[in-house]
Design brief:
The protein has 163 residues and is an all-alpha fold. Helix content is 71%, strand content 0%. α1 packs across α3, α3 packs parallel to α7 and α4 packs antiparallel against α5. It is elongated and about 60 Å long.
């Protein structure tokens, strides 16, 4: 993990995927409404597109390993969201400045999460057949969603297939 976080392959993939039409909204909805971790969903897509199958024990280990860190990322997210609107008596320019700094810290923390997840993924069972990769992508997302399939996963699936 000597690689710069902003150049990490999973971070670069995450930015491409998250920038795809509808993916950001889908990830936020899956996170807020379904309690799913957006970074874990992106990791599952990356693994599937890389031909790696996310088996249950690996997912459980990843979630357990990152639980404390993810709680801190969630705390940063909560602070950022709480600062969306005016907070008296703080001048608006100061509120926006501090909110921007909190958002930068949240993104840096998410970079760490993704780098840690990428390290957990190695080695994993690899599939090379393109159809099997699509199946691995779908299976990985289903594993993260604990067998559920909320509609927003289709947005994520479609974008990951297109990248």
């Amino acid at each position: 993990m000597n690689q710069a976080l902003d150049q990490h392959p999973l971070w670069l993939y995450a930015n491409r995927l998250y920038g795809w039409a509808g993916v950001a909204d889908a990830c936020i909805a899956l996170q807020d409404r379904e309690g799913l971790n957006a970074n874990t969903l992106i990791w599952a897509c990356w693994l599937g597109r890389s031909g790696l199958l996310l088996v249950g024990s690996r997912l459980d280990a990843a979630e357990a390993a990152l639980a404390d860190w993810d709680a801190q990322v969630g705390a940063l997210r909560g602070v950022r969201r709480a600062m969306r609107s005016r907070i008296a008596p703080v001048p608006e320019v100061w509120r926006k400045r501090v909110r921007g700094l909190v958002q930068d810290a949240e993104l840096a923390a998410e970079q760490v999460s993704l780098a840690l997840l990428a390290d957990i993924a190695q080695p994993a069972p690899r599939v090379v057949d393109p159809l099997a990769r699509e199946a691995a992508l779908r299976a990985n997302l289903a594993a993260v969603a604990k067998g559920r399939w909320p509609a927003e996963l289709e947005v994520l699936l479609g974008a990951a297939q297109a990248l």
